[in-house]
Structure formats: structure tokens, C-alpha cells
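S1.2 Input.
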Amino acid sequence: MNPASTGVIGFAHTDNIFGRAIRFAERRDGEEGYWNHVFASRDGKLDSPVIQAEIHGVTDDKPLSTVGEYTLVALPETADPVRFFSFLDAQVGDHYGFLSITSDAFGLYLPEDVCYRQAGTWVCSGLIAGALWYAGWPPAICIPDLYSVRPSWLAKKLAANVPGSH
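S1.3 Output.
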């Protein structure tokens, strides 16, 4: 598979407060907890822009070289790359889901079915899971709540052997 024609999904490890909180939540829930950010790239080149949900919203203006420590996996063969990137492109400019992330943090103390979200916002793993769902990737079609998807779940589902970092 040629990543330049199909695209790649990246997983990053960051040490900011959000990154540490996501890894803590994943470890608490028995997940791997190493990768805390998910993004997409059309070709995986260092100078190419990535599409990601970050503090400033859904963006496509930062090169891969800015995401920190990362690893890349090919877009699944069962996902339509045109639909995948069409979905992501349509979300660029949407806001970041601060309320969703906060709700997830408070989820430690609240009943499982209590959550707060704002329409039209995204978190990184929900954005990529939504794009995979739109692109027809079977595991994403079965996700009951895009905001319940965390980076470790995507890493596990996309590749049992997520390669080493860069």
C-alpha cells in the first residue's frame, strides 16, 4: 500500500497537560496509555500538513514535524481514502471539544451515562474515528459514541503492531 495515495493515521505522545491526562485516563481504564493524540496525513511526509483536533480547533496548517514523538500507520484497506479525507476536510475550522474532554475527566466520578458535550466540536480521537466511520471502516461503524474512542483503542484496532516512534 502506498501511503502517498491512501494517507496515514498518526499517533503522537505529548507531555502537555492534556496528553498526561489522556494517558492517565487510559491507564486507569486498563489501556496501553502511551499514545495520547491522533491525527491524519495525506502522505506522511515531514513537511506535509496534518489534520487534527487540537486546542485551536480542527486544523490543517501544521506540518507533521510539529507533532512531537509519533508513529504512522497506513489507512486501513477497507477505508475509502477519498471519503476519509473528505470528512476531515469538512471539519477543518470546527472548535475543539473542551466540554467533551472535561466531561471525560469528570467521568471518573460521575455515572457512565452522564456526559456533557457541545455540538460541532471534536477531540482528536473522535475526529479520526468519525472519518474512519464515514470512510466505511467496519470497526468504526460499530462505535456507539465517537467521544468514547481514545487513542489507544484506535492504535489497537488499526494495527496490532503499531511501529516504533519517530
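S1.4 Remarks. The mean pLDDT is 82.
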